[in-house]
Specification:
The structure is a single chain. By secondary structure, the chain is an alpha+beta fold. It has a single domain, classed as L-fuculose-1-phosphate Aldolase (3-Layer(aba) Sandwich), CATH 3.40.225.10. The chain has seven helices and nine strands; from the N terminus they run H-E-E-E-E-H-E-H-E-E-H-E-E-H-H-H. It has a seven-stranded mixed sheet, sandwiched between helices. Helix 4 links the parallel strand 7 and strand 8. Helix 1 runs parallel beside helix 5 and helix 2 crosses helix 5. The chain is globular, with a radius of gyration of 19 Å.
């Protein structure tokens, strides 16, 4: 007689939360140590747990806190209607609010950020990150209007928070944090390039070659702009 193994939902949830917390700590430590995060160390994660109504929050103290261990919370995804994760066209399960030095300069300038640096561009379909200028409107409303008005453009990977930081989204904590690393690096190098004539757009065919290397070429070409 055999006994069929039955999964314990509570144990599974604990494991998922612990793995997410481990990923979050690794991402935070890496981005802090390599200078991606600004001095405030603002780095807050919201992650939807697949197949459940659980919305996981992982918030780091930041600033001068001696202990940078994150606070972890669980809320209802269905009851958090203002979350950007409710927009299916973003294809995201993770949202990270972050402050980085160079990208925040674009937020302060009230300008959208053009993605011209290859390390970021090859992983992204979008060509720019818009700026959330109408702060009296929610980020979700702003992104939905952009997607409605510009279906020919690929959905952006983030939204700059005017006069502040940025909200990034993606699949999984590590992958989303990696996009933050690449985009902040792009903002830094593109700012340096301004001193020698400014960052330039890709030469013909170069971006398509990069997309081919990351398997994004077909999807990229499906957009008109």
């Amino acid at each position: 007689m055999t006994t069929e193994h039955q999964s314990n939902p509570d144990a599974d949830l604990v494991g998922i939360v612990e793995q997410a917390r481990s990923d979050a700590v690794h991402a935070f430590n890496t981005l802090r140590d390599n200078g991606t995060l600004s001095a405030s160390l603002t780095f807050h994660i919201t992650h939807r747990i697949a197949g459940t109504d659980h919305l996981l929050g992982i918030r780091f103290p930041g600033g001068l806190a001696r202990d940078q261990s994150p606070q972890v919370s669980l809320t209802s995804f269905a009851e958090t209607q203002s979350s950007l994760l409710h927009e299916p066209r973003l294809e995201a399960d993770t949202l990270i609010h972050v402050h980085t030095a160079w990208l925040s300069a674009w937020s302060l300038a009230h300008k959208s950020f053009p993605i011209l640096y290859v390390a970021a561009a090859r992983h992204l379909l979008a060509r720019e990150i818009p700026n959330h200028l109408e702060r009296t409107r929610s980020a979700l409303d702003v992104i939905r209007q952009r997607l409605d008005d510009n279906p020919q453009l690929a959905p952006p990977p983030a939204l700059l928070e005017s006069n502040g930081g940025a909200n990034f989204w993606g699949k999984g904590i590590i992958k989303t944090a990696e996009i933050i690393l690449f985009v902040e690096e792009a903002a830094r190098f593109q700012a340096i390039a301004e001193q020698i004539g400014g960052a330039q757009v890709y030469t013909p065919g170069a971006l398509e070659l990069q997309w081919k290397r990351t398997g994004l070429l077909d999807r990229a070409l499906s957009y008109k702009g």
